[in-house]
């Protein structure tokens, strides 16, 4: 279930057609008092000890205005967003089509991605005007503020975001300019997104890696020493660098669930043989058409899925003679279908992209004022937020209320 939210705003911000419709029609005065049907749930109360609410309100009744609550936003600038995920790899999507510059800075992206004090995500993606004849440009800030060239799960979410913004249905495709070049996603009739990821880059200097090439200028099943162990690695670029390993000198087939990714992952990412750092995929072979991987992403750490990583895994498996060119790749968040076609040397990735929630965030993230709440009660006539130490924080009747709620607590 996708949750919706909007924030009152007095600035002259130009919204997209979809957001304008959302802001002007989602909550109408004629629907007051507060209509719980907005949240598509029949629950009348919610209890969650770690539930965080950020809200703004405007009083519709003709009465003396109350003292301004500390919950009311002090800044008028609002960043509207929709959060999507591809197999659990989640992103904050921003409609940036009216500007060639991202609407938030890398530092602000870090705060937005914080899962305790922000919205929470693996990255922020901006839908920007196309260049060089493309329909759109995609830029990404990782949760650490770095900017990757591309993201496979992110581009699937990007495609769904564009379709939702334009309110279009059925099969459709887009051309997207990325730091890794031209990417062409196609939304299928079943709602999944198939993406032409282009050709893999194998030349060691272009990945880039300082490991010496050992097969036609590529690094295939080469030894890499980390913590006294020799890992057999194959290096692939999908527009961003990947180091793929299926084995060590002592273990011929990794049991990926036994690995401590938070310990070993950073040692691969920051190894001196990867001048631009690297994403690392640890892979277990089930069969020649079925692989399982875990990933440590450059700039994001351990994630539930990585689309470019799954593509790199199939390329590496083919090069090492471990798989066919068409494989199911299991990730912690679910499976992706990957095909490396011989006729055009392109890799095609197919998987889901789903909406999690939509809402608004202050552009100056550090100036938000909010509270930790222990009890939240929603009914058709009022919202009440309580804190055991302070009693009622807000109790609103006959108001116009905008609130952001994550679907997982409903």
UniProtKB/TrEMBL annotation:
GO terms for cellular component: chloroplast; cytosol. One of its GO terms (biological process) is lysine biosynthetic process via diaminopimelate. The keyword Amino-acid biosynthesis applies. Its EC number is 5.1.1.7. NCBIfam families: DapF. One of its GO terms (molecular function) is diaminopimelate epimerase activity. Its main location: plastid. It catalyses: (2S,6S)-2,6-diaminopimelate = meso-2,6-diaminopimelate. It comes from Papaver somniferum (Opium poppy). Belongs to the diaminopimelate epimerase family. It is found in: Plastid, Chloroplast. This is diaminopimelate epimerase. InterPro entries: DAP_epimerase_AS (IPR018510), DAP_epimerase_DapF (IPR001653). Keywords: Amino-acid biosynthesis, Isomerase, Lysine biosynthesis. Pathway: Amino-acid biosynthesis; L-lysine biosynthesis via DAP pathway; DL-2,6-diaminopimelate from LL-2,6-diaminopimelate: step 1/1.
């Amino acid at each position: 279930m996708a949750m919706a939210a909007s924030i009152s705003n007095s600035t002259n911000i130009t919204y997209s057609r979809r957001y304008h419709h959302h802001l002007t029609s989602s909550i109408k005065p004629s629907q007051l008092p507060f209509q719980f049907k907005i949240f598509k749930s029949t629950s009348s109360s919610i209890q969650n000890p770690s539930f965080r609410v950020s809200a703004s309100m405007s009083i519709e009744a003709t009465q003396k205005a109350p003292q301004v609550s500390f919950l009311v936003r002090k800044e008028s600038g609002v960043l509207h967003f929709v959060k999507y995920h591809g197999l659990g790899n989640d992103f904050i999507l921003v409609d940036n089509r009216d500007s060639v510059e991202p609407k938030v800075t890398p530092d602000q992206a870090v705060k937005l991605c914080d899962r305790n004090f922000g919205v929470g995500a693996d990255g922020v993606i901006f839908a920007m005007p196309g260049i060089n004849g493309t329909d759109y440009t995609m830029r990404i800030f990782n949760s650490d503020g770095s900017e990757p060239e591309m993201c496979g799960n992110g581009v699937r979410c990007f495609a769904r975001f564009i379709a939702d913004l334009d309110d279009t249905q059925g099969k459709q495709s887009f051309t997207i300019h990325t730091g890794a070049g031209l990417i062409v996603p196609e939304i299928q009739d079943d709602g999944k997104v198939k993406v032409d990821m282009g050709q893999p880059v194998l030349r060691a200097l272009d990945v880039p890696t300082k490991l010496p090439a050992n097969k036609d200028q590529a690094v295939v099943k080469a030894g890499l020493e980390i913590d006294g162990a020799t890992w057999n690695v194959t290096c692939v670029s999908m527009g961003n660098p990947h180091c793929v390993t299926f084995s060590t000198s002592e273990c011929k087939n990794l049991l990926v669930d036994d690995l401590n990714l938070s310990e070993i992952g950073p040692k691969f990412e920051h190894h001196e043989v990867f001048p631009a750092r690297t994403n690392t995929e640890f892979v277990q072979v089930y069969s020649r058409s079925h692989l399982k991987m875990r990933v440590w992403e450059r700039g994001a750490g351990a994630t539930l899925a990585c689309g470019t990583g799954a593509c790199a895994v199939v390329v590496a498996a083919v090069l090492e003679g471990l798989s066919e060119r068409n494989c199911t790749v299991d990730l912690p968040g679910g499976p992706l279908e990957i095909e490396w076609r011989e006729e055009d040397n392109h890799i095609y990735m197919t998987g889901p992209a789903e909406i999690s929630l939509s809402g608004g965030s202050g552009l100056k993230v550090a100036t938000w004022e909010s509270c930790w709440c222990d009890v939240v009660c929603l009914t058709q006539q009022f919202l009440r937020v309580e804190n055991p130490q302070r009693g009622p924080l807000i109790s609103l009747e006959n108001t116009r209320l905008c609130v952001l709620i994550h679907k997982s607590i409903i």
